[in-house]
Amino acid sequence: MKPKLTKLFLLLLFLQMLLPAQIALADTGPKPQMDFQFKYESTEEHPTIISGILYECQQSDCSDAAPLQQLGPQGFRCDPNSCSATAYGFAPYHKIKIEFSDEETRQSNIFKTAGFDSKYTVTVRPSDLLVEAKFSLGILPPIIIIVTCICALVGVGLVVGLIVFLVRRSKKN
After folding, report:
1. Tens digits of per-residue pLDDT, 29-59?
2. What is the DSSP string of 68-92?
3. Partners of 94 in the beta sheet?
4. In this predicted structure, what is the pLDDT of residue 22?
5. Which helix or strand (DSSP H or E) is residue 157 part of?
6. Alpha-carbon 167 to chain mean position
7. Spatial distance between the Cα atoms of 136 and 144, rounded to a whole number of angstroms
8. CB 110 within 8 A of CB 57
9. CA distance linking residue 53 with residue 36, whole number of Å
10. Any residues with CB less than 8 A from the CB of 91 and at least 6 apart, and which?
11. CATH fold of 33-133, please?
């Protein structure tokens, strides 16, 4: 019996050596995002977006502004009508600089991160951009999480109580 196991072990070892070694790639899950929808102040022909840069700042005046780096999924991307950003983590303050098809490069006001999945409206004005966060639930999400946890605990307690009640009742019969 031992020679068979030895042969099987050697065969499996040999097959493993024939398999190519591969690097395992893993993602860390959802990442913070920003979506920018553009609207135009004038009713004239609207220029399209050529390219853009998202600057990240730790200071509220953006004196330490640095472009968001392109690292794997992290980066700032634009199509002709909108822009989006994904990051491993955003700084508290930002501003964007967008180049348009009318050969104008407009820069925005300084704005704060609005949340994990931030949505912004960018008003394109003749000489600059105005970034405003879209409606956010603000303090409501933590309250919703707390209420959901309390309801879940009460629900689990009721289910456990019902099971105990039914088990005791069945033992009496």
Report:
1. 788 899 999 998 876 778 899 999 999 999 9
2. PP-BTTBEEEE-SSEEEEE-SS--S
3. 56, 111
4. 66
5. helix 140-172
6. 46
7. 14
8. yes
9. 12
10. 56, 57, 58, 113
11. Immunoglobulin-like (2.60.40)
